[in-house]
Amino acid sequence: MSEQTPIPPCSCCQDGQALGFDFSMAFQPIVDLRDNSLYAYEALVRGTDGSGAASILGRVNEQNRYAFDQACRVKAVELAARLQMPCMLSINFLPNAVYQAATCIRATLQAARRVDFPTERIIFEITEKEELVDKEHLRGIIHEYQRQHFKTAIDDFGAGYSGLNLLAEFQPDIIKLDMALVRSIDTDPVRQAIVQGILGVCRVLNIEVIAEGIETPGELRQLLGLGIYLFQGYLFARPAFEALPEVNWPAG
């Protein structure tokens, strides 16, 4: 990414309070079965002792939401660089914690440059489960991130507040099908039809699809048959604390 004129920090960067607690990350791979390659690792919040995300997310509130969102991005980039991550890095972000997209990305850019992690290998995921305060605000965030050459994704697609209506507002680079849609899809014609419809829309809009939460060979075979090739789930690897886990590639 080319150097740009420095953008002054917004008031939230200048006046925001310290987070007040520490945390770390686990990483889970997203695989590309077209050539059995690593597509990305998703950074997942953990306690410093490896405890689950709930122990940390329960401490996030309106007062520290912005500081937590910024700290997550920096922590993920720093760990990815330390672990010599060879592929994309996927980071969840809180859209309601981003006040000015162009300025609030500064800490991420600075961290990436400091640890020499390529910014073009960063994906920002928004979870559809988080109720959006302002869709126009989110559209501005997505456009700014795409302008900065980051990839964008909607996580947990099909599980939240807006479904396909979200795609009418803006078009991310990627959607991640919620695990509730893919669970036992090999034996459920209704889920098969819903996923097939989503895939048709995404092909027209040139949006890549990741199926997450894959746990069984049957689910994998069905989704491969529908034309999906990007996957994430326990069938391939569980998240590893401050490490990049090995992938269990399917036989055959």
Identify the notable features of this structure and list them briefly:
alpha/beta; 10 helices; 36% helix; disordered N terminus
Main sheet record: 8 strands, mixed, barrel
The SS-based structural class is alpha/beta
Q: Count of helical segments?
A: 10
Instruction: List segments where confidence is low: pLDDT < 50 over at least 5 consecutive residues.
Output: 1-14
Q: Whole-Å distance between the termini?
A: 39 Å
Could you give the order of the helices and strands?
HEEHHEHHEHEHEHHEHEE
| Rg value | 18 Å
Number of DSSP strands?
9
Spatial strand arrangement across the major sheet:
1-2-3-4-5-6-7-8
Task: Round the mean pLDDT to the nearest integer and report it.
Answer: 86
Which term fits the overall shape? globular
- As a percent range, the share of helical residues equals 25-40%
Q: Report strand %.
A: 15-25%
Give a brief rundown of this model.
The chain is of the alpha/beta class. 36% of the residues lie in helices and 21% in strands.
